[in-house]
Write a structure and sequence with these properties.
Keywords: Oxidoreductase. Belongs to the short-chain dehydrogenases/reductases (SDR) family. The chain has 266 residues and is of the alpha/beta class. The chain has a single domain, classed as NAD(P)-binding Rossmann-like Domain (Rossmann fold, 3-Layer(aba) Sandwich), CATH 3.40.50. Helices cover 45% and strands 13% of the residues. The chain has nine helices and seven strands, in the order βαβαβαβαβαβααβαα. It starts with 8 loop residues before the first strand and ends with a helix. 36% of the residues are buried.
């Protein structure tokens, strides 16, 4: 297993708030002092982060035109040729009431359903596709690289039905990470999936006392994630998400890896 301590330059999407911002401020303090590239939409928050030594910033919105992501990836690699890790943290969450389908906007391209799918899943897959040639070149040079996704415990057990589409996008991202890791066996490209529980930073509509019992403080979450990244873990489920992960995901990764190996043999 390869530790994030080996990374030289780490891109973090959705870095202007919440998990992304906290990860940027934590990872820049690693003993190897990696260059952190904080990406996000909010210019004023990026300017604030740019004042931290070791953090550079770029404006990036993964929910934008998928056709522009290739150019974005190429520009990023030209500007930061040492880039060897990406943390795909950007995401959006909406509530939909399917008992009132007339309340759900399905018009393209403004549909919140499509934006949620694109931001949380599709754009991440496209962006990874355009970053991979660079990472595979590093692999040929025996340099490790990292593709780190941020899924959700809701992608394992969708216990909040009002965010049904969000939960489905995170389940898709988690599943994709499993398959991608299996495909990249034998390279130096490491695929890691962070699986957060409910966090105190989330502004959940209709928050209940029952839900609040399951919330984890952000600093505790970041500490656990950092420990997992430094130990070279493939999957980092945290808090209640870890409980559900161990209950429902046990053996899945081994089965996916075995299937990938059999496909190569055949």
């Amino acid at each position: 297993m390869t530790s994030i301590d080996n990374a030289k330059c780490i891109l973090i999407t959705g870095a202007t708030s919440g998990i992304g911002r906290a990860l940027a401020l934590a990872l820049v303090k690693l003993p190897n002092r990696p260059q952190i590239v904080a990406a996000g939409r909010r210019k004023e928050r990026l300017e604030e982060l740019s004042k931290v030594e070791g953090i550079s910033t770029i404006q990036l919105e993964l929910s934008g035109d998928p056709n522009a992501l290739k150019q974005t990836a190429q520009d990023l690699i030209r500007r930061f040729p040492e880039l060897d890790a990406i943390v795909l943290n950007a995401g959006v969450q909406y509530e939909f009431d399917f008992k009132k389908p007339e309340s759900i906007d399905t018009n393209v391209p403004a549909s919140a359903i499509l934006k949620e799918i694109n931001t949380n899943y599709t754009s991440n897959v496209i962006f990874i596709t355009h970053i991979l040639p660079h990472f595979l070149k590093l692999s040929e040079q025996e340099r490790p690289s990292f593709i780190i996704t941020v899924s959700s415990g809701l992608g394992i057990v969708p216990f909040r039905p009002p965010v049904a589409n969000y939960s489905a996008t995170k389940a898709a991202l988690h599943s994709f990470s499993l398959s991608l890791r299996a495909q990249l066996v034998g390279t130096n490209v490491n695929v890691v999936d962070i699986v957060p529980p409910l966090l105190t930073l989330l502004q959940v509509q209709g928050k209940t006392e029952q839900l609040s019992k399951h919330w984890m403080p952000l600093d505790q979450f970041i500490s656990t994630v950092l420990d997992g990244l430094r130990k070279g873990a493939h999957n980092i489920p945290v808090g209640d998400a870890k409980t559900d992960y161990e209950k429902f995901e046990k053996g899945k990764e081994d089965r996916v890896a075995h299937a990938a190996l059999e496909a190569v043999k055949n």
